[in-house]
Amino acid sequence: MREDLMQELRRITEEEEQLLAGGQVDRSLYTTGSAFLIDSDKLLAKGKLITVRPHTRFAAFPLHTHNYVEIMYMCSGQTVHHVEGRPPLTLRKGELLFLNQQASHSVERAGEEDVGVNFIVLPQFFDYALNLIGTDNVLGRFVLSGLKQSGGEMSCLHFRVAEAPTVQNLVENLVWSLVHPQPNGRRINQATMGLLLLQLLNYTGDLEEASGNGAVLAALREIEENYRTADLTHLAAELHVSLPYLSAAVHRTTGRTFKDLLLEKRLSKAAQLLRETRLTTQDIILAVGYENTSYFYRVFRSRYGVTPRDYRRDRGGDFLSQEG
């Protein structure tokens, strides 16, 4: 990260000066209630959907929840996090930690060189990003699950992307744009966030889910990367867990069964191939992992309201002649 920006982020804040003088974290800066739920109204200016602020150093940050999505990025040093009562998670320089709404979270004391920034993001800010990345992947489901106000959501995602230059550049651009507002800032920031999430989809192999559902993430990656042949029984054996345990964990975390998620992915891919290629419907059916043509036609029509041929005619008429 450029040095002039780092100098701004390293600057000791008034709150941190109080902590260095022996004070404690002032909850009134973050909430108006008795429970420590950090309120976005305390941190976001009226009408804003996103902001960025340096992580508070020099004191342990107490257990809390929040009514927004938090994304923490370590600019230098490291911080140690406790999420949902799970083992400690160390966030190191260049890494990203996504925390969903309602995630229970505390942070151990950070020193002067442990410089991190927190993106405070309202869920609606991700509308543009979701249009880019879709919802049939880990990040899309994470954002959607953040709309829930109850438990069961994917609470935390940890990206080990310190060696990913494209990710680092996009994060720095987003920080700079938020620290130094510019014309058309909202559109620029939403586009940058969308590109950031697109890039992060390339690093799901470096992803950890701090709420302890690594097996669930493996199942979601299986759907994303191997949707044609994905099989939960085979995956459970690879992970050395029972099939009922893995099936229940997927449903508990996502609110959907593995079978439903796989069907969604296959149909989404089939629709894309109908729109963008000259493959016949039969070739597409095989390409997405089905052999039973009548079953595919039935579920496709149930999902999109039309037959594959009509879908192609309405959305990609140039390829209709290939259907014969």
Average pLDDT, to the nearest integer?
88
Q: Give the low-pLDDT segments.
A: 319-324
Between the first and last Cα atoms, what is the distance in angstroms? 56 Å
Main sheet: strand order: 2-9-4-7-10-11
Q: How is this structure best described in words?
A:
The C terminus is likely disordered. The strands form 2 sheets. The chain has a 6-stranded antiparallel β-sheet with strand order 2-9-4-7-10-11, with helices on one face. The chain has a 5-stranded mixed β-sheet with strand order 1-3-8-5-6, with no helix packed on it. A hairpin with a 5-residue loop joins strand 5 and strand 6. The termini are far apart. It is of the alpha+beta class and 324 residues long. It is built from 14 helices and 11 strands. Helix 8 crosses helix 9 and helix 8 packs across helix 10.
Brief synopsis:
This protein is of the alpha+beta class.
Structure characteristics:
324 residues; alpha+beta; six-stranded antiparallel β-sheet; five-stranded mixed β-sheet; 44% helix
Task: Walk me through the topology.
Layout: H1 3-10, H2 14-20, E1 37-38, H3 40-43, E2 50-54, E3 61-66, E4 69-74, E5 78-83, E6 89-92, E7 96-99, E8 105-107, E9 116-121, H4 127-133, H5 138-145, E10 156-159, H6 165-179, H7 185-200, E11 207-208, H8 214-225, H9 232-239, H10 243-254, H11 258-276, H12 281-287, H13 293-304, H14 308-315
Parallel strand pairs: 1-3
Antiparallel strand pairs: 2-9, 3-8, 4-7, 4-9, 5-6, 5-8, 7-10, 10-11
Helix pairs in contact: 4-7, 6-7, 8-9, 8-10, 8-11
